[in-house]
Amino acid sequence: MKKNITCLRWTAASIVTLLMFTLHVGAQDTFSIVAVDITTGEVGSAGASCVGSSNYYPHGAAILSDVIPGVGVIHTQAAYLLGNQVNAHNMMVAGSSPQEIIDWLIANDAGGNATTRQYGIVDLNSGDPRSAAYSGVNCMDYKNDTAGYTYSIQGNILLGQEIIDSMQSRFLNTEGTLAERLMASLQGAKVIGADTRCASPYQSSSLSAFLRVGKPENNYDSLYLDLWMAYPQTWGTIVPVDPIDSLQILFDQWQVSTGIKDPGASVSIPVIIRYMDSGQVQFDFSGCPAGISLTFEIYDPVGKLLISQPVTSQTISISQGRIASRGIYIYRAITSDHRLAASGKFYLQ
């Protein structure tokens, strides 16, 4: 057990990566849920925000999610600081309870002002889960949180209490897997201006959304389910599809293509997306292991296959000339034995 715990601790490289990302996002993140399933041992989280994406992973709202397989989940949001997330992570790995973690963070805030932070934390605790939430008095209104036996829901800069109430109701009254219940909870917040910053000019609930679930046997950096959708932070008009609906499309696709696979035989590869000044979208496969044969596919949001080509170089570029119109599209990387190795959403300007 000690060996596994050591591997979960934040490394210098992961801290630098997240620090680079935090330079590209706003200070606030909004509605989110953390939860565990004591039957399956799964832990997961979902959330959305009017913070968009940069060129760094994680994208948009996903920065706040810290899913630790077999242990629990932490969300650090509102005036986000990396130092608080690192401290919370290491305390959970060391065995501290959610309330102990929050109490310590309040007393030892990395920025010296815990009143602007918001936390939601839940753990498995050997089948007797514990949860806790905190909303600092100086978080931007409307702010609130609610915690139950296996979950915690929290939000700031919200339209109102109805967002949290709807998320809670959907989570508690949806039957199915933890992932399905988390997705349903997020759909409960799909209201224009749920994050009030996104009412105008975007006419959406958010600019980014994510859904992440880890099984007990998963590695920290390779979760069973890790989906996100994000418009760029520079987006300036009405969004064509609400990020929560785009995430739903990804999740529905995942359930068909990935959810039915044997997770022990699955393959996961890194794909970096870069948005070029020319309007092209570049997919970087340079981090993929040698010897893997891949086919790259692009689908429109209703599932029509638009492009299918072998991956023969480290990068593939897509422009409007190849797809014909701007908008949101789905990409997939498929192995030679027809397993899904990577998938996600991207936008084409």
Topology:
Blueprint: H1 2-8, H2 12-22, E1 32-37, E2 42-49, E3 65-68, E4 72-77, H3 82-93, H4 98-107, E5 118-123, E6 130-135, E7 144-147, E8 151-155, H5 161-173, H6 178-187, E9 208-214, E10 225-230, H7 243-257, E11 272-275, E12 281-284, E13 294-299, E14 305-310, E15 315-318, H8 320-323, E16 327-335, E17 340-348
Antiparallel strand pairs: 1-2, 1-8, 2-9, 3-4, 4-5, 5-6, 7-8, 9-10, 11-12, 12-15, 13-14, 13-16, 16-17
- Give the second-level CATH assignment, the architecture of the largest domain: 4-Layer Sandwich
Q: Return the structural class.
A: alpha+beta
Helix and strand pattern: HHEEEEHHEEEEHHEEHEEEEEHEE
Count the beta strands: 17
CATH homologous superfamily title of the largest domain:
Aminohydrolase, N-terminal nucleophile (Ntn) domain
Unreliable stretches: 1-27, 259-265
**For this entry, what is the oligomeric state of its chains?**
single chain
The residue fraction in helices comes out at: 10-25%
**Overall spatial form:** globular
Q: What is the typical, i.e. mean, pLDDT?
A: 83
Give me the Rg, rounded: 19 Å
